[in-house]
Design brief:
Layout (H helix, E strand, L loop, with lengths): L1 H9 L8 H13 L4 H8 L3 H12 L4 H19 L6 H10 L6 H10 L14
Helix pairs in contact: 2-3, 6-7
Length: 127
């Protein structure tokens, strides 16, 4: 009977807390045969937001994600070609020279997130 199962899924201690967790919970309820409308209501998410999430997760990476991946690959190539001595200001200039349009803040963020750091040369002491 659907009512008994719904009481089980409706209990407050089993309700999810994070947004993505809620969407997954609604999807699991759908797989068990519960109506999406009711599962969305219990999870406190809109039905449209659930369907949008499902479309995003099944469609693969977006154009923005692909462009960022290509930019990071380009940054790694520049970093390796310059013996890892390229910081964010120099990286921004090199990318601009190659035709990329953007600002230094994005370059700094991507370098930080992807672990592209400038290798510091040791100071030499002349005797």
């Amino acid at each position: 009977m659907l009512v008994c199962g719904w009481n089980e899924i409706y209990s407050t201690e089993r309700r999810p807390s994070g947004v993505v967790t809620r969407y997954r919970w609604v999807l699991a309820g759908k797989a068990k045969g519960f109506p999406i409308t009711m599962a969305c209501k219990v999870a406190d998410v809109s039905r449209q937001a659930f369907y949008d999430w499902r479309l995003r997760t099944t469609s693969g990476p977006s154009k923005t994600d692909q462009a960022e991946k290509n930019l990071v690959e380009q940054m790694r190539e520049i970093h390796d070609n310059l013996d890892e001595t390229c910081g964010s200001p120099r990286m921004t200039v090199k990318l601009t020279n190659q035709g990329w349009v953007g600002n230094h803040k994005r370059v700094e963020r991507l370098m930080r997130v992807h672990g592209i750091v400038r290798a510091h040369k040791l100071a030499t002491i002349s005797a």
